[in-house]
Write a structure and sequence with these properties.
heterodimer, A: 216 residues, alpha/beta, Rossmann fold, 4-stranded antiparallel sheet, 9 strands, globular, B: 567 residues, mainly alpha, MetI-like fold, 2 domains
């Protein structure tokens, strides 16, 4: 598995491109960090890769997963997982049902699906919390549940949008280890945008600086 | 933009344009033709100004016009003044959610039911007179016309009891988008009093957010019919009531001057909105000059407290009116100076059973159908915006408000003619559709903000997990938005139950609802039966709001993030 960006560039309907065309190769199991000043369009870059670009933006260039061009596909067909600074668990579903939401439909049988969710919960230190209201979890538990939900969907790549910035310092290190451990173990290519140099250091992969065009 | 999104948007736009906007235009066109003498059904096909001359010559026309202008403009401006003053005085002490809870009954009750209740309270033999009677030594009701007074004061009070709570809700929700506390602190630190900060700093930010709702209130107050029949002067009445009478006059040629009057009514509303725009422009210039002078001004506190007191009095009268409906419907012997009935009875309920059951059935059917239809259309519209990933264009926003700004009497007659010409029968289907014209805008407005407030990243997360647009809608958005969706539906029910003119015109007088019956009965003498209809009329929206509160609480009982209130 690998994620490739090929001269990816985003411009608003009117106006100049947000940043210089970006070409990147993310090998399986590695985390590439994108850093850059705020407002340069880091989150918009992730939107373009994941297929969530808002109306009024146009992307040029290609996004490839394992060599397959996914540029024209809708978000739900790309199999690119997404993690934000907030866990964004669905508030109307229990913790377990949140994880089940991400489980691929190919996994058949109620018992099988339940077992897969329970296993994932156990992996995240959330054993026995299937029926819990996500609003009653601690911040760390929520973040781990969100990662498990994303991983259960078996993504071919992972996008991390400042994933640790809302956690307090102690928890942050723990979540970095947990997240990057899973990325390496599963061999998923991951792209992370962040402000925090410590995130980049913990990720261990290459760091790309996103450069805006200088005002003329 | 996906193909499906485009299709959905095209379908919604077609439904709104052909189902809602085109009929209004066609109705205005038909009415306009009749206003200039073209009415082929009666053999008139020459354009003339005759209808306008006839209109001007009709007895009481000038008085009707004056009454409409005074009551409509007066009630709107006073309501705005009082609501603003009240918010300025109590805003810091009231959260938006608590405010919304308190205001809900006043918003839910239909205008006609509130009017019937106020008539019970204000009349010479009403509750207020009964409370004063022992002090004043009255043995029989004083001989003064309080309700249906010639100046339209009772009508203005009635309009204000309904419009002040609406404006309060609108202003409170506008205030929640403004950092009021910080601006207040900054202003006071610069030496301005609370009231002055409110006028100079807060209101200029609030006004753009409430401008459209204020226009809607003005359009409504200038063209209201049901409340004006019950509380307003009867001979001559306000223009909209006079027009309704003329449209239903036994002499079919009265349709010509009535149509001219209907176009005039639309012109009055347009003029009223233009007046507000001019006041706004003048206020902006004057305000800037005043602001730049930097005067710290006198304390505006007394004015604010006076406004708050007036609002409390209005709300108390409204609450009393609501209670009086139920009391009258259960009263048997109740002679004048007694505060409560001497004997109670269920006879008013059992006696008129056949009548109110049929009206209740019709009303519930209409409310369910129009609220359901409007909700489906609103959800389709909002989902179409989501799928196209674009915000609403200003013209689309204007399209939503359009039916609320054009007076109903201006196009309902033409609409009915058009309906008959195409060969569609008047009756329950025509009424469902005509009511939807007015229910849809409110449902759409109520649902838009909560829909947009949904965290877009959560929907992206669902997409990234492989959920397509359909699954995102049905398994994420709709369940998370259950509470606002049901609240919007309850508002739709309240609006539908309150409709009077669309039911009258499109039902050709044959579709009896609680509202049409209550208005008809209100001029009669039996307050008990009127009380039964008005109680039911108020009860139906209350039940809808209660369901909108209880169902989400039950469904989401173990979901803390969704359990919070917020109407």
């Amino acid at each position: 598995m690998s994620l490739d960006l090929d001269a990816l560039c985003i411009r608003p309907a009117t106006g100049a491109a947000l940043f210089r065309p970006l070409t990147l190769h993310v090998p399986p199991g590695e985390v590439v960090t994108v850093m850059g000043p705020s407002g340069v369009g880091k989150s918009t870059l992730l939107d373009a890769i994941g297929g969530h670009l808002a109306h009024g933006f146009r992307a040029s260039g290609r996004v490839r997963l394992n060599g397959r061009d996914v540029t024209g596909l809708p978000a739900e067909a790309r199999r690119i997982g997404l993690m934000f600074q907030d866990a964004l668990l669905f508030p109307h579903l229990s913790v377990g049902d949140n994880l089940a939401f991400g489980l691929p439909p190919g996994l058949r049988g109620r018992a099988n699906r339940r077992a897969a969710v329970e296993a994932a919960l156990a992996q995240a230190g959330l054993a026995g919390l299937y029926a819990r209201d996500p609003a009653t979890l601690s911040g760390g538990q929520r973040a781990r549940a969100a990662l498990m939900r994303t991983l259960l969907a078996e993504p071919a790549a992972l996008l991390l949008d400042e994933p640790f910035s809302n956690l307090d310092a102690g928890l942050r290190q723990e979540m970095r280890d947990f997240t990057f451990g899973h990325v390496t173990a599963r061999g998923v290519p991951a792209l992370m945008v962040t402000h925090d140099p410590e995130d980049a250091a913990a990720a261990g992969g290459p760091v790309v600086a996103l450069k805006g065009y200088c005002p003329p | 933009m996906s193909h499906e999104g485009r299709l959905l948007r095209a379908a919604v736009l077609a439904a709104v344009a052909l189902g809602l906007i085109a009929p209004i235009a066609a109705g205005l066109w038909q009415t306009g033709r009749a206003a200039f003498g073209v009415l082929p059904a009666l053999g008139r096909d020459a354009v003339s100004l005759g209808p306008w001359q006839d209109l001007a010559g009709l007895p009481g026309f000038a008085t009707s016009l004056r009454l409409t202008l005074v009551t409509g403009l007066g009630a709107t401006l006073l309501s705005l003044l009082l609501a603003t003053g009240f918010c300025a005085a109590v805003h810091a002490r009231m959260t938006r959610i608590a405010g919304a809870r308190m205001l809900t009954p006043f918003l839910a009750i239909p205008h006609a039911a509130m009017a019937v209740g106020l008539a019970f309270v204000l009349a010479p033999s009403g509750w207020i007179a009964r409370m004063i009677a022992p002090l004043a030594g009255w043995e029989r009701p004083p001989d003064i016309a309080i309700v249906n007074d010639g100046w339209g004061l009772a009508l203005m009070v009635g309009l204000m009891v309904k419009e002040v709570p609406f404006l309060l809700l609108v202003i409170l929700s506008a205030l929640s988008q403004i950092p009021v506390a910080r601006h207040m602190a900054a202003g006071r630190a610069l030496g301005y009093g609370r009231g002055i900060v409110w006028i100079k700093i807060i209101m200029p930010q609030v006004w753009p957010l409430i401008r459209l709702p204020v226009w809607v209130v003005l359009a409504y107050a200038l063209s209201v019919v049901d409340m004006a029949i019950i509380l307003g002067p009867s001979n001559p009445p306000t223009l909209a009531v006079a027009l309704t009478r003329w449209f239903f006059d036994p002499d079919p040629l009265m349709i010509l001057p009535a149509s001219a009057g209907a176009i005039l009514q639309a012109g009055i509303v347009a003029g009223g909105v233009a007046l507000l725009l001019m006041l706004e422009a003048a206020g902006r210039r004057l305000g800037r000059w005043w602001l730049r002078r930097g005067g710290r001004g006198l304390s505006a506190e007394p004015g604010l407290w006076a406004a708050s007191a007036a609002v409390m009095v209005l709300m108390a009268a409204g609450a009393l009116a609501m209670v009086s409906l139920a009391v009258w419907s259960l009263a048997w012997r109740w002679s004048f100076p007694q505060i409560l009935p001497q004997s109670w009875s269920l006879k008013p309920w059992t006696g008129a059973q056949g009548g109110w059951m049929r009206a209740l059935g019709n009303t519930a059917l209409l409310a369910g159908a129009t609220a359901g239809l409007s909700l489906a259309l609103a959800i389709a519209w909002l989902e179409g915006e989501d799928r196209a990933r674009r915000a609403r264009a200003p013209w689309a926003e204007a399209l939503i408000y359009l039916p609320l700004l054009i007076p109903q009497i201006g196009f309902l007659y033409g609409l009915n003619v058009g309906f008959l010409r195409i060969g569609l029968p008047s009756g329950i289907w025509a009424v469902i559709w005509a009511q939807t014209l007015f229910v849809f805008p409110y449902v759409m407005i109520a649902l838009s903000d909560p829909w947009r407030a949904l965290d877009a990243r959560m929907i992206r997360a669902a997409a990234a997990l492989g959920a397509g647009p359909g699954r995102r809608l049905w398994t994420v958005k709709l369940p998370v938005l259950l509470r606002p969706i049901l609240t919007a539906a309850a508002i739709g029910v309240a609006v539908s139950v309150a409709q009077y003119l669309p039911t009258l015109f499109m039902g050709a007088g044959r579709v009896a609802t609680l509202t049409t019956e209550a208005v008809t009965l209100s001029s009669g003498s039996d307050r008990r039966v009127t009380g039964v209809y008005a109680t039911l009329q108020a009860g139906l929206p209350f039940a809808a709001y209660l369901a909108a509160f209880l169902i989400p609480a039950l469904v989401h009982r173990n979901r803390r993030a969704l359990a919070g209130g917020g109407a």
